[in-house]
Amino acid sequence: GLASGVILGSGRVIDVVGPNTSSNTGTDLGQTGDSDLDLLIPGYSTNDASVLEFDFTCPGGGGAAEISFRYVFTSEEYNEWVGSQYNDVFGFFLNGTNIALLPDGVTTVAINNVNNGTNPTYYIDNAGPSPVDIEADGLTVVLTAQGAVNPGANHMKLAIADAGDYILDSWVFLEENSFECN
Question: Could you tell me where the beta strands, DSSP code E, fall in 60-152?
């Protein structure tokens, strides 16, 4: 559902290229995790983190301002590891607050929270005959991250990592030209 943009992954980004021919694609990069992502999965630690950070301001006068952008989360941990402690994690931290949430504004987007049995409206099963030409066994529909911004400077941290292990990669796709200040 996204024509172009940026990909962050917990392994090699080139491995997400389809079609889906394997249920266990993964690369152990031997890298550290991310402390903000660790806080999203209490009791577990992350590995092989990929992080993109930047500062920005939204143009325009006062009033309540908000940013939004479109994304898709994908993973090789679908469907075999749903309900387990092996849940790769990602987050979009706007001024320190995770905005990678389902449209309810509360539920984090994760393998245990979006799958065939939980919030299936937001899930595409890509195992077996793959409806989407990517390697991942499952993915979300196109979702929109949004959050309130400060009147001046703001900080965005986009991060993804393996959780509990170094294997079975996950990726997050960020749509080109979808980052907007309203």
Answer: 65-75, 89-94, 97-98, 123-125, 138-140, 143-149
